[in-house]
Amino acid sequence: xxxxxxxxxxxxxxxxxxxxxxxxxxxxxxxxxxxxxxxxxxxxxxxxxxxxxxxxxxxxxxxxxxxxxxxxxxxxxxxxxxxxxxxxxxxxxxxxxxxxxxxxxxxxxxxxxxxxxxxxxxxxxxxxxxxxxx
Amino acid sequence: xxxxxxxxxxxxxxxxxxxxxxxxxxxxxxxxxxxxxxxxxxxxxxxxxxxxxxxxxxxxxxxxxxxxxxxxxxxxxxxxxxxxxxxxxxxxxxxxxxxxxxxxxxxxxxxxxxxxxxxxxxxxxxxxxxxxxxxxxxxxxxxxxxxx
Lengths: 134, 148
Hints:
Order of helices and strands of chain A: HHHHH
Shape of chain A: elongated
Structural class of chain A: mainly alpha
CATH topology of chain B: 3 helical TM bundles of succinate and fumarate reductases
Number of domains of chain B: 1
Shape of chain B: elongated
Oligomer: heterodimer
Structural class of chain B: mainly alpha
CATH superfamily of chain A: Fumarate reductase/succinate dehydrogenase, transmembrane subunit
Largest sheet of chain A: none
Largest interface: A-B, 63 and 57 residues
Radius of gyration of chain A: 20 Å
Helix content of chain A: over 70%
CATH architecture of chain A: Up-down Bundle
Strand content of chain B: under 5%
Distance between the termini of chain B: 66 Å
CATH architecture of chain B: Up-down Bundle
CATH class of chain A: Mainly Alpha
Number of helices of chain A: 5
């Protein structure tokens, strides 16, 4: 029995294959993992504020780097995507009849993501450029 | 003998299955049902707390370049922002670590490895919760006069 069981790598990886939700499901996972891994580090760096200005400002200076700024843009995108796709999950889980309306709901959450993300990207790239020039 | 307990066969009443595959199946009961519900309730609150947090910190007024010790000290003079940040800390940590648990249960099959991975994240979560909570609630900028 163990041989067959071991070969099956995932309980949830394949049932979604080919479903319209498969890509949003994968992106939800990837963005979620990215955000929690950053959160682990972010709690530590923010906690340094309890050790005074010298400790805090020395460590947060590490964020004043164009490459880190671009990673931050990715972080903001990950948080926004995860939040709006999560709202789609909530709607369908709590109002199962909305499952039939998955297409318009997906278009709405994607549109919300883009409407916020486009100006945010412009502003954050401008900030990154200002840092490069400085 | 059963080798898989995490995905019971779908009950016939759950038709048509194709339209329900947008999210994890709702567990039938017990702790798993509470965890499922927690992910959704905390997720709804985190839409406001985390999206608000990243937009406030990264977009206006030069974004993160304006953030230093003085910025945090002024911000945490307000109980509102201390409460916001503490709620964000607690909800995001539990939501994220439960997400990691779900992913571990999906992809890692040997029971010992599953337990080891999950216990590592739980331990990390407890330590970070304690660290963050102590700092949010005990921070006192007057210990560093002239820094603000």
